Amino acid sequence: DAEGHVVTNYHVIQGASAARVALHDRSEYPATLVGVAPDQDTAVVRINAPPASLPPIRIGTSHDLQVGQKVFAIGNPFGLDFTLTTGIVSALGRTIPALTGRRIDDVIQTDAAINPGNSGGPLLDSSARLIGVNTQIASPSGASAGVGFAVPVDTVNSIVPQLLEHGRIVRPQLGVAVGNEALLRRAGIQGVLVMTVMRGSAAERAGLRGTYRTEDGVLVLGDIIQQVDGKVIASVEDLYGALARHSPGDVVKVHVLRDDRPLEIAVKLDAPEQGPITG
Predict the structure, then answer these.
(1) Which of 26, 70, 205, 235 has the smallest number of Cβ neighbours within 10 A?
(2) Quick check: 171 pLDDT over 90?
(3) Residues of 42-57 as b/e, b for ≥16 C-beta within 10 angstroms?
(4) Rounded Cα–Cα distance for residues 29 and 5 (Å)
(5) pTM of the full predicted structure?
């Protein structure tokens, strides 16, 4: 933007003790780190450059992309700076792993040539609007095989304001500790089992129930979370992903299975500062 904030991939600056940004006129500026979101492989740095040298990129949308539409990628493959490649949107809704092992959902797949050095560069539509940030390739050789991936701009738009304000992602909290979903799968049940509801949490206020034993020692299963705002929950990763789409203070509809009966519970999500909440 005009203030010198630059979006890139987290893995581009990971472990760096210093960084520099080169502009199109080949002027270079030292960069300071603003914030990182490792789970989305996204980072923001800032340079102190004249505003006239910083025309902001036009921002598009990614929720309305269509397979087959033309795209352009800009990057620095193998050190060949200011390289433009072109292709199409090959697929939508892909999932790739971040460096942290967490999933990045709704990723754009493209056959525009993306190679080492393209990371952090823009994926553009035919109107030169940003629709994604190039982040990974799938290749047995390490070079472009026509299968590249970009973090969608709608995800970037939700992340960057938090990085600018907090330097990190402020995740909304439900306030539960959950069990291993494999236990439910073996029983043929879809969802995530609530083991513990944290005191004072959003989940406790909303009336979610954890797993407990009766005085007779009988184990009573807690609520089994099966949907959050219509998104099917089949794993802990699904639960994290559904919550990550929201902000603290949002009210979400949590569909649970309680005593073999479906139940919908409205939960107002907490901010993480409200307690050491794990889910």
Answers:
(1) 26
(2) no
(3) bbbbbbebeeeeeeee
(4) 12
(5) 0.76
